[in-house]
Design a protein that fits this description.
The chain has 3 helices and 15 strands. The chain has a 5-stranded parallel sheet, with no helix packed on it. A 4-stranded parallel sheet has the order 10-12-14-15, with no helix packed on it. By secondary structure, the chain is mainly β. The chain starts with 6 loop residues before the first strand and ends in an 8-residue tail after the last strand.
Length: 323
């Protein structure tokens, strides 16, 4: 076999069981290719007929499991819903495909192969025992919801080279304890870190261009005090119910959308360096401890004040941020 040959591991019995569960749920008789299973599997739980049988089989089976020689790619749905522990992946693996380990709540790995470059969408979704402490340095793509619900994921850093934190990538990763992000990050998508209660970022990369809605919702340990000058808007619900205590908003920000900082119970002061074109009237709604908002413009120049912060005093014509 050539050294360039790639092997893909797909657990055929798992695919058959998932297809059977889809048919049982829908009452249909369709046959499914792996590429067609994504939309069809929505709404099917681990207690549905064939999946329950598969899970019980994988949980109680004493048959040894071994990865095939020469494995390079773990294919789509390869080990989905296998509820027993699996041996570590071979070091030659470079790609983990879509939903490869979806719902494998017996997966307790602490590391991944160093040559890994790609983790597909939903790859480890629901792997509640996955306890990775680091990711391979050469990893350049992590798909959406890849680690959603991995409550024991204990990463303290992410690899340089990542440019995007995709939608719901770390949603519900309550043990994630990052204090910084790679300088290569340009986009943080919707729900990227939602519910990461131990996320303790103190700053964001200076080149970041976009932070989407709900990105830091319920991140109660978030320790940001300013946003990078590359950010031009703060989207709705971006920091809702997060742990912010103080925030300086750079002159680059031209718009703050509704509920952007809503329900930040510990937020005590906000300072604007420039004058946004628009601040939604509910941008700071529910920030009951927000006492001071400092702005470098005169009263009435930006409508909607105090933008939902009903207990705040606004210091107009503030120049301290430019000194």
């Amino acid at each position: 076999m050539s050294d360039t040959t790639r092997k893909v591991y797909v657990n055929e019995s798992s695919l058959e069981a998932i297809a059977d569960a889809i048919r049982e749920k829908t009452g249909g008789t369709n046959t499914y290719k792996p590429a067609q299973m994504g939309p069809a599997i929505e709404g099917i739980s681990q207690d549905d007929g064939s999946l329950k049988t598969l899970i019980e089989r994988d949980t109680t089976s004493t048959a040894p499991f071994a990865w095939p020689d020469g494995l390079r790619i773990v294919g789509r749905y390869a080990c989905a819903y296998m509820y027993k522990a699996l041996p570590p992946l071979p070091e030659d693996v470079t790609v983990i495909g879509e939903r490869a380990f979806y719902g494998c709540n017996g997966l307790d790995w602490t590391s991944l192969p160093e040559g890994l470059t790609t983790i597909g969408i939903y790859a480890f979704n629901g792997c509640s025992e996955l306890a990775l402490t680091s990711l391979p340095a050469g990893l350049t793509l992590i798909g959406e919801s890849a680690f959603n619900g991995c409550s024991k994921l204990a990463l303290t850093s992410l690899p340089e080279g990542l440019t995007t934190i995709n939608t719901s990538t770390f949603d519900g990763c309550t043990s994630l304890a990052l204090t910084s992000l790679p300088s290569s990050i340009r986009t943080i998508n919707t729900n990227a870190f939602k519910g990461c209660s131990n996320l303790a970022l103190t700053s964001l990369p200076t080149g970041i261009l976009q932070i989407n809605s709900y990105a830091f919702q319920n991140c109660t340990s978030l320790a940001l005090t300013t946003l990078p000058d590359s950010v031009t808007q703060v989207n709705s619900y971006t920091f809702v119910n997060s742990g912010l205590t103080s925030m300086t908003i750079p002159a680059s920000v031209t718009r703050i959308y509704y509920y952007a900082f809503a329900n930040c119970a510990n937020l005590a002061d906000v300072t604007f360096i420039g004058k946004p074109t628009t601040i939604d009237s509910a941008a700071f709604k529910g920030c009951t401890n927000l006492q001071t908002i400092r702005v470098p413009w005169s009263q009435g120049q930006v409508s909607g004040a105090p933008w939902g912060a009903t207990n705040a005093t606004i210091e107009y014509d503030y120049t301290g941020g430019n000194e």
